[in-house]
């Protein structure tokens, strides 16, 4: 036997890779024939497996199982699948493997069957105007689906069309587009449209095209320029915050950009800053406006020098413009102006009590229209107290009535009036002036003693003092401090009395010697601190009382009574008369009300044909209701003597046998005025006689039967003597039965 070692694969069974061109049109096409070294005529069966045979895509390859020839049955596309790997098998007729499976690789050879494709149809790029040559703008990019390792996918780029300028070039290998020469100007041409081409086979094969759009970005290389050198405008005087006119400019740069937006400046002709100029953002024109009112009488025309420039600084290479300055002439139009009070408000001072007709001031206005002859007239617009009169032509203000103080029309001592000045233009204009008049205080009132009476102890020292006060209708400085002193006309008062200052408005009256009880009248002299001072002698009525241990009045009632000694007789008579009159009116009112009540009650009883007591029905039976009219006869209450003759009344079962019989029933009064009084009198009589109260004896209304849980009412009258009945339980029934418990318990 031969030594078994690694099997040696026969050379005929090893199949090298097979190449076939894509898009091969001769179908079927013999690719290869495989053979087994163990081939016997008619004794070997060949087969192949793999993609293109029994796997997707199916049916591309097939084999003759007896001859081993492999055929191509369909056109191949390298872009879909560039190679196929199959497995070849050799079996005998019985299905036994003769050879180990071997690999069969089929390589698809590329053909230039795909054009290049740009990534997009339109490429967009931006470059600033004036860019230097060689400034790259953008890159166009294309792809080719053919084999990248062959010339089929070798692309070259070119510019087919860009106009006549030839401002751009393209890198043939990378597709990068750059500027080719200087002179890019957005104001001349802002957009360039280039047609670019990509070709495979290194530029000699299939081609495709796309558009490259290049936008030039604006730079500030054009200064703004006025459309003309001079502008004329007209403005009204005495107005502000209005537009006067426009100055027009032109800028070639991109509209709306900072390179286009203009900025204006007033260089000369407006020293007081009456004008301002701003930019209209939509039109880029300059708008001249007034920020201060003009006065035609002061200046009737202005000549302004205005400059213009961009918001963004101009490029250094940009040329300067000779039309960056313009002259603006403004004429001031004269209009009618309102009068003006130069001093507003006018403040003056007037003494109170100034007599009517006294001139206090001349308040006039001036007319700014000096170039027009106009006449001013005056009128009082506001004079709340009617104190003033005004000369309509001269503006002289006089007093119409005496100016008084205090007054409800004064505000902090000031009187406010309004004057109106009007010109005679068409239409007329007016102005209002404020006249503030200070009413100066005049010391025309003397201080008044407050209060004019008092009570003090008649013993010197402790308790023998009284605090005095005073008031003054004048305002400071014509009021306090006040000066108190005993009347110089009665020097003898200083032996018993003294006055010392307490503060600016009060003083202390003191007793110097012990005085008997009683009333005293002390003449005092009071003086204020005004200029000149005002003084007045007044009486102080004092009641001297009996002093207690503490220095106070011992008998307060007596002191209060004697304190009234200072009241005048007339005042006392008025007080007494008023008191008596009030008492008489109160008594008359009470009598009238009582008489009205009695008459009303009597009238009700007489007018009613039925007694109110007729409405008492017998409701003790449970079921009668309104239809049960078996009521008590009310005539028994009206005329008891008819139904109860003077005979022995029935004896109460619960009354003691030894109880005395009460007298006969009471007669009804001849003329009863109040039914309530009648009933109350009868109730009082029944309460005072517990033995036989008339007509209110307890009655048995119903029998509840034996064995009732509640106590029977009949037990109250079940016997004739107290020995047979126990009333102690009445004390347990509560406060309402306390009287029964006291009577029978």
From TrEMBL:
Topology in the lipid bilayer: Single-pass type I membrane protein
Originating species: Grallaria varia (variegated antpitta)
Job of this protein: Cadherins are calcium-dependent cell adhesion proteins. They preferentially interact with themselves in a homophilic manner in connecting cells; cadherins may thus contribute to the sorting of heterogeneous cell types. M-cadherin is part of the myogenic program and may provide a trigger for terminal muscle differentiation.
Chief subcellular location: membrane
Biological processes per GO annotation: adherens junction organization; calcium-dependent cell-cell adhesion via plasma membrane cell adhesion molecules; cell migration; cell morphogenesis; cell-cell adhesion mediated by cadherin; cell-cell junction assembly; homophilic cell adhesion via plasma membrane adhesion molecules
Name the record gives this protein: Cadherin-15
Gene Ontology cellular component terms for the protein in this record: adherens junction; catenin complex; cell surface
GO MF annotations in UniProt: beta-catenin binding; cadherin binding; calcium ion binding
Subcellular location per the Swiss-Prot or TrEMBL entry: Cell membrane
Region listing for Disordered, in residue ranges: 645-675
């Amino acid at each position: 036997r031969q030594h078994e070692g690694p099997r040696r694969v026969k050379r005929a069974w090893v199949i090298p890779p097979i190449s076939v061109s894509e898009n091969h049109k001769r179908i079927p096409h013999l690719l290869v024939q495989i053979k087994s070294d163990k081939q016997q005529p008619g004794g070997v069966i060949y087969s192949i497996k793999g993609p293109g045979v029994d796997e997707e895509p199916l049916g591309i390859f097939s084999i003759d199982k007896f001859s081993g020839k492999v055929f191509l049955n369909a056109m191949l596309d390298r872009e879909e699948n560039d190679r196929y790997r199959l497995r070849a098998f050799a079996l005998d007729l019985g299905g036994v493997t003769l050879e180990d499976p071997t690999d069969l690789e089929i390589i698809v050879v590329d053909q230039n069957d795909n054009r290049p494709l740009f990534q997009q149809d339109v490429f967009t790029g931006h470059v600033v105007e004036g860019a230097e040559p060689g400034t790259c703008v953008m890159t166009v990019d294309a792809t080719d689906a053919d084999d990248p390792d062959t010339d089929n996918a070798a692309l070259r780029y070119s510019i087919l069309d860009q106009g006549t300028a030839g401002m751009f070039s393209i890198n043939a290998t990378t597709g990068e587009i750059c500027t080719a020469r200087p002179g890019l100007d957005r104001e001349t041409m802002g957009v360039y449209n280039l047609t670019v081409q990509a070709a495979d086979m290194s530029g000699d094969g299939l081609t495709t095209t796309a558009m490259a759009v290049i936008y030039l970005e604006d730079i500030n290389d054009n200064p703004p320029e006025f459309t003309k050198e001079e502008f004329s405008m007209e403005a009204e005087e005495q107005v502000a915050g209005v537009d006067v006119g426009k100055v027009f400019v032109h800028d070639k740069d991109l509209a709306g950009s900072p390179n286009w937006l203009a900025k204006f400046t007033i260089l000369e002709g407006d020293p007081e800053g009456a004008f301002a100029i701003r930019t209209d953002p939509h039109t880029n024109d300059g708008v001249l406006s007034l920020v201060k009112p003009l006065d035609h009488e002061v200046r009737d025309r202005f000549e302004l020098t205005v400059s213009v420039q961009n918001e963004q600084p101009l490029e250094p290479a940009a040329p300067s413009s000779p039309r960056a300055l313009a002259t603006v002439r403004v004429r001031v139009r004269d209009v009618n102006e309102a009068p003006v009070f130069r001093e507003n408000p006018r403040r003056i001072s007037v003494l109170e009590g100034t007599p009517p007709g006294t001139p206090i001031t001349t308040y006039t206005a001036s007319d700014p229209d000096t170039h027009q002859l106009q006449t001013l007239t005056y009128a009082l617009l506001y004079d709340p107290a009617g104190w003033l009169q005004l000369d309509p032509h001269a503006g002289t203000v006089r007093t119409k009535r005496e100016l008084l103080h205090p007054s409800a029309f004064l505000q902090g001592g000031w009187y406010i009036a309004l004057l109106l000045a009007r010109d005679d233009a068409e239409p007329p204009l007016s102005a209002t002036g404020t006249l503030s008049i200070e009413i100066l205080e005049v010391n025309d009132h003397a201080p008044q003693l407050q209060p004019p009476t008092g009570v003090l102890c008649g013993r010197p020292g402790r308790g023998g003092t009284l605090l005095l006060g005073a008031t003054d209708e004048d305002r400071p400085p014509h009021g306090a401090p006040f000066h108190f002193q005993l009347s110089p006309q009665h020097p003898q008062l200083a032996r018993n009395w003294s006055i010392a200052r307490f503060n600016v408005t009060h003083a202390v009256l003191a007793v110097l010697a012990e005085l008997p009880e009683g009333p005293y009248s002390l003449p005092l002299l009071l003086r204020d601190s005004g200029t000149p001072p005002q003084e007045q002698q007044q009486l102080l009525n004092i009641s001297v009382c009996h002093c207690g241990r503490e220095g106070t009045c011992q008998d307060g009632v007596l002191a209060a009574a004697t304190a009234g000694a200072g009241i005048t007789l007339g005042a006392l008579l008025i007080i007494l008369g008023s008191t008596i009159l009030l008492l008489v009116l109160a008594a008359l009112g009470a009598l009238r009300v009582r008489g009205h009540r009695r008459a009303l009650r009597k009238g009700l009883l007489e007018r009613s044909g039925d007694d109110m007591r007729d409405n008492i029905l017998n409701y003790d039976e449970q079921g009668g209701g309104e239809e049960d009219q078996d009521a008590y006869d009310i005539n028994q209450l009206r005329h008891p003597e008819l139904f109860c003759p003077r005979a022995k009344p029935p004896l109460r079962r619960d009354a003691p046998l030894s109880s005395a019989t009460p007298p006969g029933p009471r007669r009804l009064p001849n003329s009863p005025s109040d039914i309530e009084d009648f009933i109350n009198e009868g109730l009082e009589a029944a309460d005072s006689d517990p033995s036989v109260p008339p007509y209110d004896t307890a009655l048995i209304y119903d029998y509840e039967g034996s064995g009732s849980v509640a106590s029977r009412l009949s037990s109250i009258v079940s016997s004739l003597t107290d020995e047979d009945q126990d009333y102690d339980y009445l004390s347990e029934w509560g406060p309402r039965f306390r009287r029964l418990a006291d009577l029978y318990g």
